[in-house]
């Protein structure tokens, strides 16, 4: 019998532990592991899209290259500060890196960014040659349509 107890939620005073979120249990382990795997995979993808090597990122972040390898493999945790720094270097958001934001990747856009990065590495003379080739390809493409 109920003996005068209500099933309504109890409202407690501040500091009362009854309304605090429950401590993590073993059931939370798969969720945490999934987040770690998502972060690891997205860090690798973002680094590659940024056109950076693990060594370059390690130097930028003042870490050892094997540390970047461990992070991208999901074997090393990433601090909030590190995650923010990765996002800055990779020109993405922390939300995307953690899987909170949808994975929207336009392969064409990514290829254009990669091409732009590679073009930026060319000498002025080589860039002029590439632009002439592009103009030729574009002219041939419009005439055959």
**Head-to-tail CA distance between termini:** 82 Å
Number of strands: 0
- Helical content stands at 55-70%
What kind of sheet is the major sheet?
none
CATH topology heading of the largest domain: 434 Repressor (Amino-terminal Domain)
The gyration radius over C-alpha positions equals 25 Å
CATH class call of the largest domain: Mainly Alpha
What's the short story on this structure?
With 145 residues, the chain is an all-alpha fold.
Describe it:
The structure is a single chain. The protein is mostly helical and 145 residues long. It has 2 domains: 28-98, lambda repressor-like DNA-binding domains (434 Repressor (Amino-terminal Domain), Orthogonal Bundle); 107-143. 60% of the residues lie in helices and 0% in strands. Helix 1 (29-49) packs parallel to helix 4 (80-90). The longest helix is centred in the first third of the chain and has 21 residues, at 29-49.
List the helices and strands and how they pair.
Elements (H helix, E strand, L loop, with lengths): L28 H21 L4 H8 L3 H8 L7 H11 L3 H5 L8 H14 L3 H20 L2
Helix pairs in contact: 1-4, 2-3
